[in-house]
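For the sake of clarity, the format in which proteins appear in this thesis is described at this point. Each number in the token line that follows is a code from a learned vocabulary of backbone shapes. One such record is shown here in full, so that the layout can be seen directly:
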Amino acid sequence: MSLYWRLFLLNAAILVVAVLLLFGPVTVSTPVLVGEAFVLVAGLVAMLVANAFLLRVGLAPLQRLTRVMRTADLLRPGRRAEVAGRGEIADLTRTFNTMLDRLEAERAASSARVLSAQEAERRRIAQELHDEVGQTLTAVLLQLKHSADHAPADLRAELLQAQETTRGSLDEIRRMARRLRPGVLEELGLHSALRSLASEFSTRGLTVRPHIEAGLPKLDHETELVLYRVAQEGLTNTARHSGASRVDLWLRLLPGGGVGLLVRDDGRGIGNAPEGAGLRGMRERALLIGAELTVRGGRTGGTEVRLGTTGGAGARRIEAEDELEKGPQDGPEDEPEKGPQDGPEDGPDKGPQDGPEKGPEGGPEKGTP
């Protein structure tokens, strides 16, 4: 039944009841007596209450749909209005749910294009910093060293100071290039990249402890990049805003077969602060791989950033490709990350290649004195 006929019949029922009362024993005098006025007022109130109740019941689906419309958020997909009954309201609810499906799909596709272009631009800038600015500063550093070796004693101290300033600028350029393009992620994988990230953010006042669980499933590059970027943004927010002294960075297997990332600090917590561009960027990245991102206060204070991936098509596609590449003579692939040396607190992937002197390509700079 349509909304129009439902409301019409509700009001018609009230009016029919009022008309039927005219054939009852009730009479109205002229002028109206007090008792008769009381009966008329009571009947009017009863009619209004009945009409309000029936209208509330009839319009309840619209109110539910309105609440869902107000709380709909494309960065938190999956919330849908419940379709109840048949008729115009049910059709409207189904249309709204279909619109949300389309908007979420379009948002995910557009976010994927934007983030892909962003990563390409990051790689381009990091490459230019490495090839142009980095090499130029290296040449300046060598020239300053040569000049300092042949300069008189009163000028040598100033040249050495300029040399140290140039070396500090070169180190900062390298750090910027590594953050723009994590070469260690492409060359050594997610485990080593997260350990290198933890080492990079560890300072005198902040300790970052990585806990990498052994035996994690193989992930595709897109999923690894999302996990790395979310961890990077979480550590950046902690270092800038939380005032924490310790951060735990976890990467572990979830019960459903997915991989979970957890960044937990002991800082002042997120409180009621509104979400900024960093958190929105993390949610958009999580949508690319169908993951669920949760940012909340910790049980004992601080902030927790959780990203849970499912055992999705990305990992299954990689496993299928590996199986196709294997021949009958091939045995099972080795798992270099497994073993007792890959416990939660161990750092087997650390070494000179993960130190602060790496260039954006993951190796040391050539020609640096």
Notes: The beta strands are 207-212, 246-253, 259-265, 292-297, 303-308.
